[in-house]
Amino acid sequence: MLEKIKKVDGVIVVILVLLMAVSITSIYSVTAGTELNGSHIQMLKYYGLGFIAFIGLSFVDYRLLLKNAFYIYMFGIGLLVLVSFTESKNGAKGWLELPVVHLSLQPAELFKLILILLLASLLIWKNKDKLTFWRDIVPLTLITLVPFGIVILQNDLGNALSYAVILMGVLWIGNIKFSHALIGLVLIGGSAFAGITSYIQYHDQAVSFLEDKIGRDHLVKRFDPWLVPELASKDASYHTKNAQLAIASGGMVGEGYMEGTSVQAGKVPYTYSDAIFVQIAEEFGFLGSAGVLLLFFILIHRMVLIALECKQRGGPFIIVGVVAMLLYQILENIGAFIGLMPLTGITLPFISFGGTSILINMSSMGIVMSVHLYGGEEEDDLPVYPRYSPPPKLL
After folding, report:
1. What is the three-class DSSP state of 103?
2. Which of 173, 355, 367, 388 gives a 20 to 30 Å CA spacing to 109?
3. Is the distance from CB of 281 to CB of 250 less than 8 angstroms?
4. For residue range 223-273, what is the model confidence (pLDDT) as tens digits?
5. Alpha helices in 251-275 (DSSP H)
6. How many structural domains are present in the chain?
7. What membrane topology does this protein have (predicted)?
8. Which of 307, 342, 346 is nearest to 170 (CA)?
9. pLDDT of residue 126
10. How far apart are CA 353 and CA 274, in angstroms?
11. What would the 3-class secondary structure string for 117-144 be?
């Protein structure tokens, strides 16, 4: 155990502590003296639980999780189905109340890590062989589509899209054929382009379909400010328009801690959670925003180095899945407030207020650290998938 402790990646630990400091101070800035006063203390408690999860999972051999990934997946599906029968919150069904620890658990967040584990456990069997379309890509895609569909029905577009991003990242490192990857990119890119173009050109028909036919009016409020801001209602564009004004007013060095004109006046909703980047940009400016992005860059860089040093097949799959998850959240969250992406409610990793988000992200880092601590050992108990033997059942 002492040898494992000595091998802990100190850079990752320091980055996590710095991100915690950014989170606590940012949340305090926008909640002090409001009805949310004390949220920074609650976030500190969440981080305490998060570090417990981080330390605990760091010293558990990640291969134990891979061996039981299917059962964990079924448990996660059960939670997603269960939450479908709960009451809506902010227009979406996604929370289970845990009164003992005073935490609202969001199964859709938890399932991101569960999906990474299952996909990694299945790709281990390939033993560096090229992925085939029908025997590998289709089953893995279907496994991802199950939670994707459930979460879409719960009006949680942001987390649903994260499952697709995780799948693409894991398939890429899983040795997908270049032709399959190219076809997939063309299909996804073409579909996205066609969908965006159609929404803009046939806006009235699209709005009628979303609102009247399928009852998804919340999608109109998210797509209009992004694609056709001139047609968006005042209510729909209020969040993103004020966020962009606040970010622009921050300039190079910001307006000062707890001095942000827009965020302190409450003109930007959810600055303690989804829109916390707006607080950082307005009060600390471009330099402060760049500093936060630098912390994320160093964290991801360390994770990539761990994946390259790992001698086992499962470790790199897990790390790439976690990297894909974090990159998507960072790009979607920040992009939504500068007009590059639609607003989906995705939190900024490690900084936005939220118990489930912190626990899942810290748990993910714990598993990454486990790969670092145990990934240098030679594989001796994982099955090897012979090239010409029948493939394992993925479903």
Report:
1. strand
2. 173
3. yes
4. 999 999 888 888 888 989 999 999 999 999 999 999 999 999 999 999 999
5. 261-264
6. 1
7. Multi-pass membrane protein
8. 307
9. 73
10. 8
11. HHHHHHHHHHCCCCECHHHHHHHHHHHH
**Residue 390 belongs to a domain:** no
The C-alpha angle with vertex 58 and arms to 378 and 65, in degrees rounded to 5, equals 65
Q: What SS3 state is found at 384?
A: coil
- Write out the residue range of the structural domain in which residue 77 sits: 1-375
Per the structure block, which two tokens stand in for 61?
């051999």
Question: How many beta carbons lie within 10 A of that of residue 74, not counting itself?
Answer: 11
Is residue 391, in this structure, part of any structural domain at all? no
pTM of the model: 0.90
Q: What value does the mean pLDDT of the chain take?
A: 89
CB 131 within 8 A of CB 174: yes
Question: Which CB contacts under 8 angstroms, 24+ apart, belong to 223-229?
Answer: 223/199, 223/342, 225/342, 225/343, 226/336, 226/339, 226/341, 226/342, 226/343, 227/196, 227/199, 227/200, 227/342, 228/199, 228/200, 228/203, 229/339
> What is the phi/psi pair of residue 49, to 5°?
-65, -35
CA dist., res. 16 & res. 2, Å (int) = 22
Does residue 355 form part of some domain? yes
CA–CA separation, 136 and 352 (whole Å): 36
**Which of the four pLDDT bands, split at 50, 70 and 90, describes residue 368?**
very high
Q: Does the pLDDT value for residue 390 go beyond 50?
A: no
Cα 378 to Cα 326: distance, rounded to the nearest angstrom: 28
The CA-based diameter of the chain, rounded to the nearest angstrom, is 67
Tens-place pLDDT, residues 207-225: 998 888 887 888 888 899 9
The answer to the question of residue 389 being in a domain is no
What confidence tier does 394 reach under pLDDT thresholds 50, 70, 90?
very low
Do the Cβ atoms of 135 and 180 come closer than 8 Å?
no
